[in-house]
Amino acid sequence: MEGSSFFLSLVLILLSARLLGECAVWLKIPPVMGEMLAGVILGPSLLGWVQPTEMIKLLAEFGLILLLFEVGLDADISQLARKGKQASIVALGGFITPFIAGFFVSYYLFNLSLIVALFVGGTLTATSIGVTLRVLRDLRRQHSNEAQIVLAAAVLDDILGVILLAVLFEFSASGEVNLINASKIFIFLVIFFALAPIVAKLMAATVGHFEKFSHIAGLIPTMIVSLILFFAWLSHAVGAPELLGGFAAGLALSRRFFLPFGAHLTQTDGRFVVRIEEKMKPIIQLFTPIFFVMVGLSLNLQEIDWSSGMVWKMTFIFILLAIASKMFGALLIRESIHSRWAIGLAMIPRAEVGLVFAELGRLSGVFDNELYAAMILTIAATTILPPFMMKYFYTRYGRHLHPGN
Amino acid sequence: MEGSSFFLSLVLILLSARLLGECAVWLKIPPVMGEMLAGVILGPSLLGWVQPTEMIKLLAEFGLILLLFEVGLDADISQLARKGKQASIVALGGFITPFIAGFFVSYYLFNLSLIVALFVGGTLTATSIGVTLRVLRDLRRQHSNEAQIVLAAAVLDDILGVILLAVLFEFSASGEVNLINASKIFIFLVIFFALAPIVAKLMAATVGHFEKFSHIAGLIPTMIVSLILFFAWLSHAVGAPELLGGFAAGLALSRRFFLPFGAHLTQTDGRFVVRIEEKMKPIIQLFTPIFFVMVGLSLNLQEIDWSSGMVWKMTFIFILLAIASKMFGALLIRESIHSRWAIGLAMIPRAEVGLVFAELGRLSGVFDNELYAAMILTIAATTILPPFMMKYFYTRYGRHLHPGN
C-alpha cells in the first residue's frame, strides 16, 4: 500500500508550510512566500524528500480551487459599486498596463513566442488583495479612502484576471491564438457567470431548507464542496481552468452578491453564508497551503542555468515592469499625489494570483524552467517588497493623507 | 489533466452518499448502509460510472483514518470505569464468542484456510456504537442502565477489535500465523498506545500555546490532521493498519482520557477539545462517507456466482452466528432477563467496524469475491435488523425495564 508514504509526504507538506509560513509572518513577509519556500526545500531543488506525485498535484489543485472559492466568497461587489469610477480606472490601468508591457517586452525584447508572451503579460496583471489587506490592517489604514479604492480595484482585477486566464488557457490548450476560440470562450464565460449564481443560490436555498430535515451531520461541507467541484468540472468542460468554477461558486454564494433581477429571491441569507464560512474554513485552510507548497515543489532550481545571465536579465526587467506598470493605473486618477502613490504601492503585490498564472503556464508547457523561475522570482519580489515600501511610505508621508475613518 | 474527471467522480460519490444516506435514515436504516448502496450503484456492480481509482482509494483511506479518529475521540473511558465489570463481561463475551464461533465454522465447516478463518472471526467481533446509540436515542433510552452497559462494552470492543485487526493484518502481510510476530506486534502496540497519548497531549498543548501567537488562520485543522496522518504512518511502520494511528490519536486527545501518571499535566483542556471537534467535524464529515461508498464500489456483484448456493449458505450461517454469539455475552451478566435481552440486541450491529475488517480482508487478498460478498451481506443484515428488533422488543417488554434516568 503506497498510502502510508503518501500520508507522510502530506504531513511534511503541512507542517513545513505552517512552520515557514509563520516564520514569514514573523519577518513581515506574506505567508505564501514561506509556504512556497517549504516546497523548494522539500522538493527536488534541495532535499528531494517529497515528489510532486499525481496525488499531491490533485490535492494542490483542490486547494487552489478552494482558494479561488474563498476569494470569490470574500469579494465585496458593493465595495466596487461605491468606489466604482476610481477603482475601475485603477484596476483597468493596473491590469492593461502590465499586460501590454509584459507582452511587448517578452515578444520584442526577449523574442518569446506569441502564447508565451501573452502568458507573461497575464502573470504580471495579478493583484493580491490578501497581502495588501494585511499590510493596510497592520498600518490601521484598512478603512481609509485609498484602502477602499485599492480593495475595490483588486476585486475587479481578480475578475478580469480569471477571465484572461480562461482565454489564455484555451490558447495554450489549442496551441494557437485564435480570436474565434477566444470569443467562444468569452461567450461561454458570460453564460456561465450568468447561470452560476442562479444555480448556486438555488442550491444554497435547497441546502438551507433541507438542513432542518437532515438526520446526518455535515450537510453543508458535503454539499458546498460538491457544488464547488461540480462548477470546477463544468468550467473545465467549457474549456476554462477549473479554478474558475471555484471562483464562480464563491462569488455566487457571497453575501454581498446579488443578481440584477429578483434580488430578494436570490440573495443568500446572511446567517447562512456565515455558517457556510464557518464549516468551509477548516477545509480551505487545510488544503490551500498544499497548492503553494506544490508551486515550490515543481520549481527545480537545480535544472536552471543560473550562469546564463538570461534568467537574471529577465527577472530584473520583469520586476521593474511589474512595479512601474501597476503604479501607472494609480497615477491616472484624481486624488492627491500622496493618495495616488499609496494606491499604486498597494496594487503591486502579485502573490497567490500571480503564482496561479505562472503554475498554469508551466503545467500547460508554455513556460520553460528558466522563464518559470524568472516569473516566480518576479512574483516573490513584487510580493515581498511592497509591505516594506508601504510601511516606509506611510511613516514618511502618512500625515499628508486623510486619516482612516 | 485528469483532475477534472476525478472531481466529477468525487461529486457523484458525495452527492449519492448523502442522498441514499438520508433515504436510509428515513427508512429507519443506519445511514452507512445507504452510503454503501451508493457505491454499489455507482460502481462496477451496476452503473460503472465511478471506478475505484488509486486516488479515490487514498481518499477513502483518509476518510477511514478520520472515522477511527472520531471513534477514539468520542470514546468515553470513564464510562468504562463506571460500568466496568458488567461491561467487561458483555464486551469480552461478545468479542470472544463471535470470534471463536466464526473461526470454527469457517475452518471446520467451510474448510477455509487458517488466516481466512481468523479474518471471518474478526469481522464478526465488531460492535457499532453509532447504530446502537442512534436507536437507543430514538427510543429515549440513551441514559438507561442497559444503554450505559452497552456503550461501555462497545468502547472496550472497539479497542479489542482494533488490536485484533492489527494482529490479523500482520498475519496477512507475512502470510503466516506466527505467534512470535503476533507478540512482537502486541509489544509494539503496547508501546505505541503508551507513548501516543503523551505525544498527542504534548502536541495539543503546543498547538494550544502557539495558537495565541499564530498569525495564519487554520492552525488546528493543519496540526491535528498532521498528527493523525503521522500516527497513521507510524502505525503502518510498526506493521499495524493505518487506521490504528487515527484511533490512537483520537483516543489520546479525547476529553475523558487521562494517563495513570501526571493526570493533571496530560489531561487535555476541555474547551480545547471542543475547539478541535468544531474544526475537525467538517473535515471528518466530508471524507468519511467516501470510505463507505468505496466499500460498495469495491464490491462487484456481477463477478459473484450467485447460483452456487455457497454464498447463500455462508451468509445464512454467518448471520445466525453473528446474532447468537453477540447475545451470548449479554446473557452471562447478572441483570434481569429483560435487561440481558435488551443489551444483547443492542450489541448486534456491526456496521462500520465490521466493514473495516471486511475491507482490510479484501485488500490484503484474504477474502475472495464470494466470501467478501457473504461478509458484506452478513454485516448488512446485522446492521439493518437490530434497530427493528430493538424497537419491537422495547414496545413489547419495555415496561419490565427500569425507566431511563
Blueprint of the fold:
The structure is a homodimer of 405-residue chains.
Chain A lengths: L2 H24 L4 H12 L11 H21 L2 H6 L1 H26 L4 H12 L3 H10 L6 H30 L4 H32 L8 H19 L4 H12 L9 H4 L3 H28 L12 H22 L5 H11 L3 H13 L5 H29 L8
Describe the structure concisely.
Two copies of one chain form a homodimer. Chain A is mainly alpha-helical and 405 residues long.
What low-confidence regions of chain A span 5 or more consecutive residues with pLDDT below 50? 259-266
Average predicted local confidence, pLDDT of chain A: 81
Euclidean distance between termini CA atoms of chain A: 59 Å
Order of helices and strands of chain A: HHHHHHHHHHHHHHHHH
Given the helix and strand composition of chain A, which structural class is it? Answer: mainly alpha
Radius of gyration of chain A: 21 Å
Strand content of chain A: under 5%
Number of helices of chain A: 17
Give the total of beta strands of chain A. Answer: 0
- Integer count of domains of chain A: 1
State the helicity of chain A in percent bands. over 70%
- How would a textbook summarize the main sheet of chain A? none
Oligomer: homodimer
The rough form of chain A would be described as globular
CATH level-1 class of chain A: Mainly Alpha
Question: What is the third-level CATH name, the topology of chain A?
Answer: Na+/H+ antiporter like fold
For the largest interface, the chains and their residue counts are:
A-B, 55 and 55 residues
Which CATH architecture of chain A?
A: Up-down Bundle
